[in-house]
Amino acid sequence: FVLIPLLLNILIFGSLIGIGLSYMSDLMAWMLSRIPAWLEFIKWILWPLIGIMVSLITGYLFTTIALIIASPFNALLAEKAEELITGRRVGSLEGVGAALLAVPRGVLREIVKLLYYLPMALFVLLISFIPGIGAVAWLLLGAWMMSIQFVDYPMDNHQLSFAKVKSAVRSRRLSSMGFGGLVALCTGIPLINFFVV
């Protein structure tokens, strides 16, 4: 239940992080070269802010890709976790074979979540150029989306619609944002993000 998603995450994250790091320093240099000479003194503030923002964006992007690919296994993991916590059997997926058969449905569900996420991400991307606001906006959006992402697995195992997932997360905004915020923060930390699921 844990090994297959973990191996998929390591493979995907390792590849994408390697590619991303090769472009990171060029991107940082380009962004900082746009600062006028009279604002040179704020470069030391912008380095960590840009680093945090890029780390959060890439963390969310990589996590999203990994979650789409590993969604059937994550649903199976959620099923077994729920059975351990509640002591009651969940009758949705049973075994790796059933998880593999659920791949098309799981990928479709992930695409629905991605379509829900994209308009909000585009808005946050637009306001990201306002110093200080971008990193906070990405963190809040990441908290919201990670909460929805991980609440969706057990709810989907019970055949509940995505609309009900959003409603459940909205009904407990504070705890959802706290949980999602911790997950979002962990997805932005290299190596820790392998173990988020």
Summarize the structure.
The chain is an all-alpha fold and 197 residues long.
The residue ranges in which pLDDT falls below 50 over 5 or more consecutive positions are none
Number of strands: 0
Radius of gyration over all CA atoms, rounded: 18 Å
Characterize the overall form: elongated
Helix percent band: over 70%
Account of the 3D structure:
- With 197 residues, the protein is mostly helical.
- It has seven helices and no strands.
- The chain has helices spanning 3-33, 43-86, 95-101, 103-127, 133-157, 162-171, 173-187.
- It is elongated.
- The mean pLDDT is 79.
Provide keyphrases for this structure.
197 residues, mainly alpha, 80% helix
Break the fold down into its secondary structure elements and pairings.
Elements (H helix, E strand, L loop, with lengths): L2 H31 L9 H44 L8 H7 L1 H25 L5 H25 L4 H10 L1 H15 L10
